[in-house]
Amino acid sequence: ANDQRSDRCMYFDTHGFIKVDQFSDKKEVEALRNQMGSLAEQWDPSSGIDSFGTDTKENRSRGDYFLESSSKVHFFAEPTALLDKENNQKELKPEYQTDKLSALNKSGHAMHMIPGAFQNYAKSEKVRNLVLDLGWKDPVVPQSMYIFKQKRIGGTVTSHQDSTFLYTTPKQSCLGLWLALHDATLDNGCLWVRPGSHWESTRRQFKRNPLHFGKEAVKTRSNEANGDTSAPKFEMEDLDGVQQIPWDGAIPEGGYDALLEAGFVPVECKAGDLLAFNGELDHLSLPNFSDKPRHTFQLHMVEGDRAGVTWSKSNWLQYPAGLPFMRLVE
Length: 330
Ligand code: AKG
Fold this sequence. Notes:
four-stranded antiparallel β-sheet; 330 residues; single chain; nine-stranded mixed β-sheet; 9 helices; Jelly Rolls; binds 2-oxoglutaric acid
């Protein structure tokens, strides 16, 4: 068992990711999909909804519903499934009103904080053992995400490193556990990774904009009737000294050649397979035009204070005062 462990560690260290076949059995995969089914069923879109896409403009303009999802379960629809109403409000297009699930892009960011299959999985011995095996010392879980990648309308996830969104100091320490809840294939938008890219530094940091959240901004805000400032809530900062790779964002039309040339490889998975990857590994997924959905559940962890690592105060995701991130090791 020891040899096996060091093999997977060595592969992970070298390439930035590993695939673990059948990490979850059929029963667990079904329990996870079912819990999301009932959460979505209970969700009333008139109480809150927003869209989710991953280009730079969409990243910067996220609003309060996103911000408040840090320690809750909020639902984000595909932009193409929503209609704009007055005052920046959105609603599901009529064809999705009786089938809310089919409109969803993702749910986040604290499924692991409520009792049930998500939490059982997050706290499972196999998750803890894997994470410790891969070298994490004091792993804590800032967020979980359920990505739907729906049949026909499931959108692109542009190339990015997760450390951009889960930034820590004095070093990056993010680890993503991406669990396939359906078979993920080239047809329905499997994940693509760029092996070895985790040796490059984090090239961008997604930050709370001080012009919105800082003291000056609060002053401005209190003068405004609608309680908001004109400064966007978030900014995407290019980090000094990091060479920008030619690939960032847009997915080319027509074929996979350009992606392969840029060094990306597709990782097809069976339902229950897991990809564990370093937060600095570049990855993306293409749209799903097929007639099969491709659900996944993701846990993102970082090192905690007992490993000498600090969660950046600039990260978009901040818990309410007094609520700690879930620890994997007591
Ligand atoms: C992420 O978890 O950071 C992803 O990029 C997920 C992409 C996907 O599942 O399509």
